[in-house]
Each structure stands twice: as C-alpha cells, then as structure tokens.
Write a structure and sequence with these properties.
alpha/beta, Gyrase A, domain 2, Rossmann fold, 5 domains, 4-stranded antiparallel beta sheet, 21 helices, flat, binds arginine
C-alpha cells in the first residue's frame, strides 16, 4: 500500500483531464504541517508555468476533474495553488483491516522485480574483522532484507579480500605453525596470528624473503601453497560467520565471492582493454585514462590496472567484478556498500566499466557510501590504547552492558531471561544506532545513547513493541479473534492510522535511495504516534464500547506488526517481554 503513489495516479489523471501535458508531475507529498490536510498535491504551480496560466485557476481546474474515489474525503486549494488532501476515514480504516488480514501487511510486491547484486561486508581476510566492517555489514544486510521483502531478487556478494601480497607472510608463518599444531589451533586467535606473522616479517632474518617466495608460489598456482591458502581462508571465513551469526546478519558462506575468484579473468581483461585501445602502457604500467573524470586543468584521471612489475590491483578486480555481475549474474542494479573514502576508486571503476561497455546502459551502478564511526574524542573509533576494536569484543560488550541494564530494571527475571533480553537489546542497539544515522555522515559511537530506553533507539522501539503486545495479554484476546471495523473517531487514532498506512511508501523510498535511516525515523515516529494514541484513547478501560475496543485493539495489532516487520527488515529482533 503506497498512498502517495495512489494519490499521485489520481491527480495525474485529473491533470490530464484538465488538459495539462502528461509530463507535468502532480508532486504529491505528505503534508508538512498539521492543518494543511494529510497530503498535498503541489504540481499546479509548475504546470501553470509550463502551460502559461494562473496557478490557482489551474488548481481549481484539476480539482474539478478529480475523481476522489474512496480514498479522498475532500480537497481544498491553499496559497498560490497548493491542493490540500484530506483522506477518508472509512477508507483508512478499511485498508488497515485488509493489512491485518495479510501476512505481508498488504505491502505490494514491486510490479517489476529486479535482480539486485548487493556487495557488502567484504572484510579482508589477511586481517581480523574490525569495526570498520561493521557499517557495511549492517547497512548492506538491511538493504538486502528490504529489497527481498519488496520482491526483488537479491544476490549477495561478499567481496572478501582473500588475495594479495599480505598472504605471503601469513602462509609462511602458517606453514611453520603447522609443524606442531593443526590449522584450527594455529588460527584460533587470528589477531594473535597476524601479530606474530607481522613481527617475524619485520624482525626475523630471512622471513621476509620467504614471505615473498610464498607470494610468487601462490600466484603461480603451486599446489602446496594453494592448499595452505585454502585452509587459511576457510578458517577465516568461519570467524566471520561467527560474527554474522551474533549480528543476526543473513550472509552465508555461499555468498562469499572473494577477490580471488577474479584472478583468472584479470590478465584477459587487461589484454582486452589494451587491444581495444581503452587502456595504454604508461611507464611500464597499464593505465586507463579517464577523460570523463578530468581535473580542472583537463588532465584525465589515471586508473592503473596493472602495475609495472605485472601485479594487478584492487581496481582491476573491481572492473572484473562489475563485468561478471552484469553479464553472468544478470544484474539490473549493482549496489556496493563501502566506506565513503573509496568514492574516487569506485567512481573510476564505474566510469571505466561504462567506457569499456562492460555492462548494458540500463544497469545501474551505485556506491552506497558511509561515513566513519567515531569515538567520543571525535577521532575514528579505537580502543583506549589506540588499537583497532575487534568486532567480536565490541558485540560482547554490547550484550554485557544491555544485560546489566535489564537485570537492574527487572531483577525478578531469571538470569537466563535477562541474558536473552540482553542479547537482543544489546545487538539491536548497536545495529540501530548505526542504521538510524544518515549513512553518509560520520557518527559518534556512544554506549549510553544507543542503550537508552528513550529516544530514537532500538531499546525504545523494542520496548514499544512489548508494550503493545502486553495489551493483548491483559485483554486475554488474541489478535486473530478481533473483528469489526476500524473506526477513527479521534485525531490520535486518525494520525496513527495515517502513519501505519505510510509504511509501504517508506519502504519504496528506502529501496530507491538506499538510506535505511528513513525507515528508522518512520518507526520512531510510528511508536510516538502510538504513545499519543495510547494516552488519548483508552483501550481496555471501563466505559469503552465493545466496538471501540475491537477497533482500537486492531490498531494496536497493526502497530505491533509494523514495528516488528520494520525492525526485522533492519535485522533487529523483538521480544514478547522485556
Ligand atoms: N575489502 C574491501 C575493504 O575492506 C571492501 C570491498 C568492497 N567491495 C568492492 N567491490 N570494492 O576495503
């Protein structure tokens, strides 16, 4: 259900009937202020300019031709030609009854499902997964869930950094360790393992040379070496999977399609670009010069795709990945969720891929960029001693802190219950704190604000959900038993009903713009509208008629399900009790 779209269609028809050219948009949007209707059609002004008439008169003409249908109660013209739209109460109630009857809350599947390749998480396996990969993982997973909910086919691509010169050092160290340990043991603490390898590389006589030999052997396809590499990769991926599991992230091993998968294609790709004159040799390196991205002086932006010594680069792999995703995976839309600091790199890759016609024009390439997670000191988030924060440790701390809060609030619960609530709240808080911020901005990581039970936080929404659900327990009624119409007798009920009906259009917007915070803001506003309703409209008190009770409980049910569904799309769980 997307009211905005429906109203837009109705007004478009009225405009055409009024003789306005079809390319003029009705520009329907939710009203910004109370007292101006529920929605507004603001297109009359632009249309008047286009056809050279008076905007207020044109607005009147549109209104004359309007088929209000069931959805519009009345309209009025305001100011220079705004059309304020008041929705019909009976229709609002009816759509919510219909939403209740549908397990998908009557949210339409998209008319034209796309194949969306979604590249996210993508940790580098030569390092421990750290907080830097948290944002990509959380944001990407929310987008994956939401696009799938809408009916798109989402192909997750975990573009793990599983190749490169750093592996020489790691494999040399691993082969030594395997003389006394098995691989599981040797790699049980990856952080420790990386540190040891690095120290040996920097300090131990002869080790750096061995590391370099390993790189050459690995690249040459040496069987022993590849076996070692495979062991290393497998165990590293398992470590990432533990994090995904803790985080309630949908990525699985079958979504891993790391950089190494493109190895065979890299020489082919470079040769092809050379043959086609798109890449040229420049001081021994192979370069694509991008005039499309020239600087102020007109110098094209250089993108190196093969180094002087013959090595390939991150950029080369990304070009191969774009080609693979468009041609093999048949993507209609390619989304890459990665740090804003990689903007130039991706813009180059996108521009070069277009230049080389690696993908049909219709396929979109989108960089879903995000800012940096900052510490309280306003610098990138680090441990107190200045080290990178391990993701696993961060998540454990979130659960510990949330469990302590829950234990203080509800000492009567059993330790097991407290631990389960603490897990759901702690993980939810970390994810929501991230998702609720405009992703392109930096944000400050703060335990107290993310774990607060007030404000735009996960605990607030999770708590709102349990409160709604508790009404049903107190009433001794299951939602499935409710019947009758949803009557919107008061302003608070009406405001809540309109909010609930806007869920579909919010999802459409997030799917289009890929900004999950828009969904968070919506859920927060919905919970606030519910609180206002709850204050104003008794549900179970004496004096409430049976019809009112049935109607209000149905509203409560749609609220609970909308919050639960919305949070689920963000990858956040809810609880019946907390
Ligand atoms: N592994 C990369 C990093 O940690 C992220 C990869 C993002 N995806 C891509 N196609 N470049 O920076």
């Amino acid at each position: 259900m997307n009211i905005r779209q429906q109203l837009n269609d109705i007004f478009q028809a009225a405009m055409i009937a009024a003789g306005i050219p079809a390319e003029c948009s009705p520009a329907v949007a939710p009203a910004k202020k109370a007292g101006f209707g529920d929605y507004q059609a603001n297109g009359a002004m632009a249309a008047a300019k286009k056809v050279g008439s008076n905007p207020r008169e044109l607005a009147a003409k549109i209104v004359d031709n309007l088929d209000k249908g069931e959805i519009i109660e009345k309209v009025e013209i305001a100011g220079p030609g705004f059309i304020n739209i008041h929705l019909n109460n009976a229709w609002l109630g009816k759509t919510l009854v219909a939403a209740r009857a549908d397990e998908h809350l009557n949210i339409d599947k998209v008319a034209e499902p796309q194949t969306v390749v979604l590249d996210y998480s993508a940790p580098n396996l030569a390092k421990e997964m750290h907080v830097g990969h948290l944002r990509s993982t959380i944001i990407g997973d929310a987008l994956a869930r939401l696009l799938e909910f809408q009916g798109h086919k989402v192909i997750r691509q975990n573009h793990m950094g599983d190749w490169g010169t750093q592996f020489g050092m790691l494999l040399a160290h691993l082969s030594d360790k395997l003389k006394s340990d098995d691989a599981e043991v040797a790699l049980s603490d990856l952080e420790q393992f990386y540190r040891e390898a690095k120290i040996r590389f920097d300090e131990e006589e002869g080790f750096a040379d061995r590391a370099r030999e390993y790189v050459v052997k690995l690249q040459g396809g040496d069987a022993e070496c590849l076996k070692l590499w495979q062991q290393f990769i497998d165990i590293s991926i398992s470590h990432s999977e533990e994090i995904y599991e803790k985080l309630n992230v949908t990525l699985t091993r079958s979504d891993v399609y790391g950089e190494s998968r493109y190895n065979d294609d890299l020489p082919v790709l470079v040769q092809e670009l050379l043959d086609r004159g798109i890449a040229v040799e420049d001081q021994g390196a192979i370069v694509v010069f991008l005039e499309e991205m020239a600087d102020k002086e007109g110098n094209p932006s250089p993108m190196i795709i093969r180094k002087k010594g013959g090595g390939y680069l991150y950029a080369t792999t990304d070009l191969a990945a774009i080609r693979y995703r468009a041609n093999q995976l048949k993507a209609d839309r390619i989304l890459i969720v990665v740090d804003a600091r990689q903007s130039l790199h991706l813009q180059q890759a996108f521009t070069a891929a277009r230049k080389a016609s690696f993908l049909p024009e219709s396929v979109t390439l989108e960089h879903c960029a995000f800012g940096t997670m900052m510490g309280e000191d306003g610098k990138p988030f680090k441990t107190r001693t200045g080290g990178t924060v391990k993701l696993a440790a961060l998540l454990d701390e979130a659960v510990e802190r949330a469990t302590a809060l829950v234990a203080a609030k509800n000492p009567e619960l059993s330790p097991e219950q407290q631990a389960e609530i603490g897990r759901v709240v702690g993980i939810g808080a970390v994810k929501y704190a991230d998702l609720s911020k405009t992703r392109t901005n930096d944000y400050v990581f703060n335990w107290d604000s993310m774990l607060a039970f007030e404000g735009n936080t996960a605990p607030y929404l999770q708590y709102a959900y349990t409160r709604v659900r508790s009404i049903f327990r107190r009433a001794g009624i299951a939602p499935s038993e409710l019947t009758g119409a949803i009557e919107l007798g008061t302003d608070a009920e009406r405001a809540l009903a309109i909010k609930l009906n806007q869920f579909g259009e919010v999802l459409d917007q997030v799917a289009k713009d890929t900004f999950p915070h828009v969904l968070c803001t919506y859920l927060y506003e919905l919970a606030s509208a519910y609180m206002a309703f709850y204050e104003a409209c008794p549900v179970l008190k004496e004096g409430v008629t049976e019809a009112q009770k049935q109607s209000r409980l149905q509203l409560c049910d749609v609220v609970a399900r909308t919050i639960a569904t919305g949070l689920d799309l963000l990858g956040i769980e809810v609880l019946e009790q907390m």
